[in-house]
Design brief:
Blueprint: H1 6-11, H2 17-26, H3 30-39, E1 42-43, E2 58-59, E3 65-70, H4 79-91, E4 96-99, H5 106-116, E5 120-123, H6 125-133, H7 142-155, E6 159-162, H8 168-176, H9 186-198, H10 203-206, H11 208-218, E7 221-224, H12 239-257, E8 262-266, H13 272-285, E9 291-294, H14 306-319, E10 324-326, H15 339-359, H16 367-377, H17 381-387, H18 391-399, H19 417-425
Parallel strand pairs: 3-4, 3-10, 4-5, 5-6, 6-7, 7-8, 8-9, 9-10
Antiparallel strand pairs: 1-2
Length: 433
């Protein structure tokens, strides 16, 4: 029996090799994975042309996944540096890489990623159209926008963000509802500007059925972009954000009717007390489709530390229903991240994802923590380093400050509670002098 997409296979009762890989990684029954793929609550982004892919599932019942954004810009266009970021991200366990390149030979880099990178690969074709056609925004035709989308599918991209929720109606509502930060989505602002300049409908909305045909042919997962995501706390949960979400819910149903997998992109800046409600609203309006969030960033005042503000919001979001966290680096709002920034961003997101998995009871999530607790109780430093999310940093910190005794650290010394309790409970004398 043949199939076109992972969703199409699942609805026909076909277990694909990708579903088997996801079930094995998650420690779940493959039949359960298949049922959720059929329902749209799990997606497995897996373009038929991405042959070196290591498949992952994205869904609320699975481990929370993280995405790493990278790519060239006009000011920073060193492909070798970007590939170093890719390698580091994969080595650190990031499940997805999103190429946001906006300058240079973007197709060369994209094809290199498809040929060499095992992570799920995502792009935003709106950016690439600007590079590819190299002409004024208003002069790009509707046909050309769609052609770039198809080119990315043909190149082997697993998921693509398209900002199709900001159509003429939602754009008019946005203009009527004044915002502090306007539109902060790069792709959303480009499409909005194009619609304003040409007077035309958003081509990704107008020709959505053609987009679905392309997705069906290559098994591309749609990531329905949030052009109206809030860019500051003041704009969070406003009319523009929610109205666009309603449109994305309608587009999700249309995609599912064509067996096309869908994720929904979610809010950027948002107060902590609004995050859980936003996750529940999304699940209702978008029928349980996996939610992919940038942050949310929970305060606007911490440039240089937005990997932390994002991790706080990401942990709450994932514990409340989000499936996929887009990492944020310390360079957010300031510059293109370097290799060290990428590492910091990944670590913060992985901590958030793991904390959320524990909170929502993902199978086996707390086993790792229990092993670390056992190693700490035994003062088994090597085992602690082995289990650490960042073993290199943990080893370095201990090496930088050598204690008098191996069974202590330089903070507590002989007053170490773990050491002394082990001794007391073993009937031994406690020496603290």
């Amino acid at each position: 029996m043949t199939y076109t997409t992972q969703m199409n296979a699942a609805r026909k009762g076909i277990v694909t090799k990708e579903m088997e890989a996801v079930a094995s990684y998650e420690g779940l029954d493959v039949q359960d994975i298949m049922k959720e793929v059929a329902a749209g609550t799990i997606v497995i982004p897996a373009n038929k042309k991405h042959t070196c892919l290591k498949p992952y599932g994205i869904g609320n019942s699975l481990k929370t996944k993280i995405n790493v954004n990278l790519g060239t810009s006009r000011d920073c266009m060193n492909l070798d540096v970007e590939m170093e970021k890719v390698k580091q991200a994969v080595d650190m366990g990031a499940e997805a890489i999103m190429d946001l390149s906006s300058f240079g030979d973007t197709q060369k880099f994209r094809r290199k990623l498809v040929n060499e990178c095992p992570a799920i690969l995502g792009t935003v074709p709106i950016y690439d159209a600007i590079v590819y056609y190299n002409k004024a925004l208003k002069d790009i035709t509707s046909r050309e926008w769609i052609d770039v989308f198809k080119m990315h599918a043909e190149d082997g991209v697993d998921f693509m963000t398209i900002h199709c929720g900001i159509n003429r109606n939602t754009a008019d509502r946005f203009k009527a509802m004044k915002r502090q930060m306007n539109i902060v989505s790069r792709g959303g602002s480009l499409i909005f500007a194009w619609m304003e300049a040409t007077g035309n409908e958003n081509p990704f909305f107008e020709y959505y059925d053609e987009i679905l045909d392309i997705c069906n042919e290559y098994d591309v997962t749609l990531s329905l972009g949030d052009a109206c995501r809030p860019g500051c706390l003041k704009d969070a949960s406003d009319i523009s954000q929610i109205e666009e979400l309603v449109t994305l819910g309608e587009l999700t149903a249309r995609a599912w009717d064509r067996d096309v997998q869908v994720m929904i992109e979610g809010p950027g800046h948002m107060p902590m007390d609004q995050i859980e409600a936003n996750m529940k609203i999304q699940q209702t309006i978008c029928h349980g489709a996996p939610f992919y969030v940038l942050g949310p960033i929970v305060t606007d005042i911490a440039p240089g530390y937005d990997h932390i503000t994002s991790a706080i919001g990401g942990a709450i979001a994932a514990a409340s229903g989000a499936s996929f966290l887009c990492y944020v680096t310390p360079a957010e709002h300031l510059r293109l991240p370097n290799v060290d920034d990428v590492k910091e961003g990944i670590m913060a997101s992985k901590i958030a994802a793991h904390a959320a998995d524990i909170a929502k009871g993902v199978k086996g999530a707390m086993d790792w923590d229990n092993q670390m607790a056992a190693a700490r109780q035994k003062l088994d430093w090597d085992k602690q380093f082995e289990l650490a999310l960042d073993p290199e940093k943990a080893r370095r910190y201990r090496a930088e400050s050598t204690p008098e005794r191996e069974d202590t650290c330089t903070m507590c010394g002989k007053m170490c509670s773990v050491r002394n309790m082990n001794a007391v409970l073993a009937g031994e004398d406690v020496d603290v002098i």
